[in-house]
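Reopening this one. Same input as before:
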Amino acid sequence: MIRALMTAASGMKAQQKQVDNIANNIANVNTAGFKRSDLNFRSLFYQTYENPGAATGSNHMRPTGLQLGSGVEISGSHKDFRQGELVASGQALDLAIQGEGFFAVKQPNGEIRYTRDGTFHRDGDGKIVTAQGYELLNAPTISRDVVGIDIAEDGTISTRVSDDQPPTEAGRIQLWRFANPAGLKAQGANLFSETVSSGQGQSVSPGESGTGVIRQGYKERSNVAVVDELVGLILAQRNYEVNSRAVKVSDEMLQQVNQMVR
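Same output, byte for byte:
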Protein backbone atom coordinates (compact mmCIF):
# COMPACT_ATOMS: atom_id res chain seq x y z
CA MET A 1 0.00 0.00 0.00
CA ILE A 2 2.90 2.33 0.72
CA ARG A 3 4.26 1.37 -2.73
CA ALA A 4 0.90 2.24 -4.28
CA LEU A 5 0.94 5.68 -2.64
CA MET A 6 4.37 6.53 -4.04
CA THR A 7 3.60 5.03 -7.45
CA ALA A 8 0.40 7.02 -7.82
CA ALA A 9 2.16 10.16 -6.56
CA SER A 10 4.75 9.81 -9.33
CA GLY A 11 1.89 9.67 -11.84
CA MET A 12 0.37 12.84 -10.40
CA LYS A 13 3.72 14.66 -10.59
CA ALA A 14 4.20 13.57 -14.21
CA GLN A 15 0.72 14.74 -15.21
CA GLN A 16 1.31 18.07 -13.48
CA LYS A 17 4.36 18.62 -15.68
CA GLN A 18 2.28 17.60 -18.69
CA VAL A 19 -0.27 20.28 -17.83
CA ASP A 20 2.54 22.82 -17.40
CA ASN A 21 3.88 21.94 -20.84
CA ILE A 22 0.46 22.17 -22.50
CA ALA A 23 -0.18 25.51 -20.80
CA ASN A 24 3.07 26.86 -22.28
CA ASN A 25 2.07 25.64 -25.75
CA ILE A 26 -1.34 27.32 -25.51
CA ALA A 27 0.14 30.53 -24.09
CA ASN A 28 2.37 30.85 -27.17
CA VAL A 29 -0.31 30.14 -29.77
CA ASN A 30 0.18 33.65 -31.23
CA THR A 31 3.98 33.77 -30.86
CA ALA A 32 5.65 34.08 -34.28
CA GLY A 33 7.83 31.09 -35.13
CA PHE A 34 7.02 29.25 -31.89
CA LYS A 35 7.38 25.46 -31.93
CA ARG A 36 5.29 23.36 -29.58
CA SER A 37 6.83 20.86 -27.16
CA ASP A 38 5.88 17.30 -26.25
CA LEU A 39 6.88 15.44 -23.09
CA ASN A 40 8.19 11.89 -23.12
CA PHE A 41 7.54 9.49 -20.25
CA ARG A 42 9.33 6.38 -19.02
CA SER A 43 8.61 3.83 -16.32
CA LEU A 44 10.66 3.75 -13.14
CA PHE A 45 12.56 0.68 -11.93
CA TYR A 46 10.84 -2.67 -11.40
CA GLN A 47 11.16 -4.91 -8.39
CA THR A 48 11.54 -8.51 -9.54
CA TYR A 49 10.03 -11.21 -7.36
CA GLU A 50 10.33 -13.98 -9.94
CA ASN A 51 12.42 -13.79 -13.09
CA PRO A 52 10.78 -14.77 -16.35
CA GLY A 53 12.05 -18.23 -17.27
CA ALA A 54 12.91 -19.14 -13.69
CA ALA A 55 12.85 -22.89 -13.06
CA THR A 56 9.75 -24.14 -11.23
CA GLY A 57 10.63 -27.82 -11.33
CA SER A 58 12.23 -30.45 -13.47
CA ASN A 59 12.03 -29.27 -17.08
CA HIS A 60 9.54 -26.54 -16.16
CA MET A 61 9.92 -22.76 -16.01
CA ARG A 62 7.86 -19.65 -15.30
CA PRO A 63 6.48 -18.30 -18.60
CA THR A 64 6.16 -14.66 -17.43
CA GLY A 65 7.75 -14.07 -14.03
CA LEU A 66 6.56 -11.52 -11.45
CA GLN A 67 7.62 -7.87 -11.55
CA LEU A 68 6.03 -4.78 -9.99
CA GLY A 69 6.81 -1.28 -11.22
CA SER A 70 7.27 1.81 -9.08
CA GLY A 71 5.75 4.54 -11.21
CA VAL A 72 6.61 6.97 -13.98
CA GLU A 73 8.84 9.97 -14.62
CA ILE A 74 9.49 12.53 -17.38
CA SER A 75 12.32 11.31 -19.60
CA GLY A 76 12.59 14.48 -21.66
CA SER A 77 10.87 17.03 -23.86
CA HIS A 78 10.79 17.16 -27.63
CA LYS A 79 10.41 20.24 -29.85
CA ASP A 80 8.07 19.80 -32.80
CA PHE A 81 9.63 21.73 -35.69
CA ARG A 82 6.83 21.15 -38.16
CA GLN A 83 5.98 24.10 -40.40
CA GLY A 84 3.66 26.76 -39.01
CA GLU A 85 1.12 28.61 -41.12
CA LEU A 86 2.46 31.58 -43.13
CA VAL A 87 0.43 34.75 -42.76
CA ALA A 88 0.88 37.83 -44.96
CA SER A 89 1.92 40.96 -43.06
CA GLY A 90 2.96 43.29 -45.90
CA GLN A 91 6.07 44.43 -44.03
CA ALA A 92 9.29 44.39 -46.07
CA LEU A 93 11.42 42.96 -43.26
CA ASP A 94 8.94 40.34 -42.10
CA LEU A 95 10.56 37.12 -43.32
CA ALA A 96 9.25 33.59 -43.03
CA ILE A 97 11.10 30.35 -43.77
CA GLN A 98 9.05 27.91 -45.81
CA GLY A 99 10.78 24.61 -45.11
CA GLU A 100 13.73 23.72 -42.91
CA GLY A 101 16.27 26.17 -41.54
CA PHE A 102 16.87 28.93 -39.00
CA PHE A 103 17.90 32.56 -39.02
CA ALA A 104 21.09 33.27 -37.07
CA VAL A 105 21.30 36.38 -34.89
CA LYS A 106 24.21 37.84 -32.98
CA GLN A 107 23.77 38.87 -29.36
CA PRO A 108 25.63 41.84 -27.82
CA ASN A 109 28.08 39.46 -26.11
CA GLY A 110 28.97 37.94 -29.47
CA GLU A 111 27.12 34.64 -28.96
CA ILE A 112 25.10 33.27 -31.87
CA ARG A 113 21.48 32.25 -31.44
CA TYR A 114 19.03 30.72 -33.91
CA THR A 115 15.38 31.50 -34.49
CA ARG A 116 12.41 30.85 -36.76
CA ASP A 117 10.93 34.24 -35.90
CA GLY A 118 11.64 36.42 -38.92
CA THR A 119 10.14 39.64 -37.58
CA PHE A 120 13.03 41.99 -38.37
CA HIS A 121 13.51 45.75 -38.35
CA ARG A 122 16.06 48.29 -39.55
CA ASP A 123 17.81 50.13 -36.70
CA GLY A 124 19.32 53.62 -36.70
CA ASP A 125 22.58 52.32 -38.17
CA GLY A 126 20.83 50.53 -41.02
CA LYS A 127 21.40 47.05 -39.58
CA ILE A 128 18.71 44.37 -39.84
CA VAL A 129 17.84 43.42 -36.26
CA THR A 130 15.25 41.52 -34.21
CA ALA A 131 12.74 43.18 -31.89
CA GLN A 132 15.36 42.80 -29.10
CA GLY A 133 17.99 44.56 -31.25
CA TYR A 134 19.99 41.41 -32.09
CA GLU A 135 21.71 41.74 -35.45
CA LEU A 136 20.87 39.30 -38.26
CA LEU A 137 24.14 37.49 -38.89
CA ASN A 138 26.00 38.45 -42.09
CA ALA A 139 23.13 40.62 -43.32
CA PRO A 140 24.09 43.78 -45.24
CA THR A 141 23.66 47.25 -43.80
CA ILE A 142 20.84 49.19 -45.45
CA SER A 143 21.71 52.85 -46.05
CA ARG A 144 19.34 55.58 -44.90
CA ASP A 145 18.46 56.72 -48.41
CA VAL A 146 16.98 53.32 -49.35
CA VAL A 147 13.23 53.52 -49.95
CA GLY A 148 12.57 49.97 -51.09
CA ILE A 149 13.86 46.54 -50.02
CA ASP A 150 13.24 43.40 -52.03
CA ILE A 151 14.25 39.98 -50.71
CA ALA A 152 14.12 37.00 -53.05
CA GLU A 153 13.39 33.40 -52.13
CA ASP A 154 17.11 32.60 -52.26
CA GLY A 155 17.85 35.36 -49.70
CA THR A 156 19.20 37.93 -52.17
CA ILE A 157 18.57 41.47 -50.89
CA SER A 158 18.04 44.23 -53.45
CA THR A 159 17.55 47.87 -52.53
CA ARG A 160 16.13 50.92 -54.29
CA VAL A 161 16.86 54.57 -53.52
CA SER A 162 13.94 55.74 -55.66
CA ASP A 163 10.97 54.21 -57.39
CA ASP A 164 12.23 55.07 -60.89
CA GLN A 165 15.67 53.46 -60.49
CA PRO A 166 16.48 49.75 -60.88
CA PRO A 167 17.24 47.79 -57.69
CA THR A 168 20.83 47.15 -56.64
CA GLU A 169 21.95 43.91 -54.99
CA ALA A 170 23.09 44.63 -51.44
CA GLY A 171 23.85 41.16 -50.07
CA ARG A 172 22.36 37.83 -49.22
CA ILE A 173 20.73 36.21 -46.19
CA GLN A 174 21.93 32.74 -45.21
CA LEU A 175 19.97 30.10 -43.33
CA TRP A 176 21.33 27.53 -40.89
CA ARG A 177 20.60 23.84 -40.61
CA PHE A 178 21.28 21.23 -37.93
CA ALA A 179 21.62 17.47 -38.08
CA ASN A 180 19.25 17.20 -35.10
CA PRO A 181 17.11 20.35 -34.63
CA ALA A 182 15.31 18.69 -31.68
CA GLY A 183 18.64 18.83 -29.83
CA LEU A 184 18.70 22.64 -29.83
CA LYS A 185 18.38 24.31 -26.43
CA ALA A 186 15.51 26.77 -26.04
CA GLN A 187 16.76 30.04 -24.54
CA GLY A 188 13.49 31.96 -24.47
CA ALA A 189 12.60 34.99 -26.62
CA ASN A 190 12.16 32.61 -29.60
CA LEU A 191 15.88 31.85 -29.57
CA PHE A 192 17.77 28.55 -29.60
CA SER A 193 21.41 27.70 -29.03
CA GLU A 194 23.31 24.77 -30.49
CA THR A 195 24.36 21.85 -28.33
CA VAL A 196 26.40 18.70 -28.75
CA SER A 197 23.12 16.89 -29.41
CA SER A 198 22.01 19.25 -32.18
CA GLY A 199 25.37 19.26 -33.90
CA GLN A 200 27.13 22.31 -35.27
CA GLY A 201 25.05 24.61 -37.43
CA GLN A 202 25.81 24.68 -41.15
CA SER A 203 25.32 27.84 -43.20
CA VAL A 204 23.30 27.12 -46.35
CA SER A 205 21.81 29.34 -49.04
CA PRO A 206 17.99 29.32 -48.97
CA GLY A 207 16.57 26.73 -51.33
CA GLU A 208 19.74 24.63 -51.51
CA SER A 209 20.50 21.21 -49.99
CA GLY A 210 16.95 20.74 -48.75
CA THR A 211 16.85 24.10 -46.95
CA GLY A 212 13.66 26.13 -47.09
CA VAL A 213 13.12 29.35 -49.00
CA ILE A 214 12.48 32.85 -47.66
CA ARG A 215 9.09 34.48 -48.08
CA GLN A 216 9.19 38.27 -47.80
CA GLY A 217 6.21 39.99 -46.22
CA TYR A 218 5.08 36.91 -44.31
CA LYS A 219 5.20 35.74 -40.71
CA GLU A 220 5.28 32.12 -39.59
CA ARG A 221 2.67 31.46 -36.96
CA SER A 222 3.20 28.97 -34.15
CA ASN A 223 2.48 25.33 -34.99
CA VAL A 224 0.26 24.94 -31.93
CA ALA A 225 -3.15 23.41 -32.70
CA VAL A 226 -5.35 24.64 -29.85
CA VAL A 227 -7.91 21.84 -30.25
CA ASP A 228 -5.21 19.17 -29.93
CA GLU A 229 -3.76 20.90 -26.87
CA LEU A 230 -7.19 21.07 -25.22
CA VAL A 231 -7.72 17.37 -25.83
CA GLY A 232 -4.31 16.67 -24.30
CA LEU A 233 -5.23 18.90 -21.36
CA ILE A 234 -8.41 16.90 -20.72
CA LEU A 235 -6.50 13.62 -20.90
CA ALA A 236 -3.85 14.91 -18.48
CA GLN A 237 -6.58 16.05 -16.08
CA ARG A 238 -8.32 12.68 -16.17
CA ASN A 239 -5.03 10.82 -15.70
CA TYR A 240 -4.30 13.05 -12.71
CA GLU A 241 -7.72 12.25 -11.25
CA VAL A 242 -7.22 8.51 -11.70
CA ASN A 243 -3.84 8.66 -9.95
CA SER A 244 -5.35 10.68 -7.11
CA ARG A 245 -8.03 8.00 -6.83
CA ALA A 246 -5.30 5.38 -6.44
CA VAL A 247 -3.83 7.47 -3.61
CA LYS A 248 -7.25 7.64 -1.94
CA VAL A 249 -7.79 3.87 -2.22
CA SER A 250 -4.34 3.16 -0.77
CA ASP A 251 -5.06 5.54 2.10
CA GLU A 252 -8.38 3.82 2.82
CA MET A 253 -6.67 0.42 2.88
CA LEU A 254 -4.05 1.73 5.33
CA GLN A 255 -6.85 3.14 7.46
CA GLN A 256 -8.52 -0.27 7.59
CA VAL A 257 -5.24 -1.86 8.70
CA ASN A 258 -4.79 0.76 11.42
CA GLN A 259 -8.30 0.05 12.74
CA MET A 260 -7.84 -3.70 12.98
CA VAL A 261 -8.23 -5.11 16.48
CA ARG A 262 -6.52 -8.28 17.64
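So the earlier flakiness isn't reproducible anymore. For the record, Residues 86-220 form one domain.
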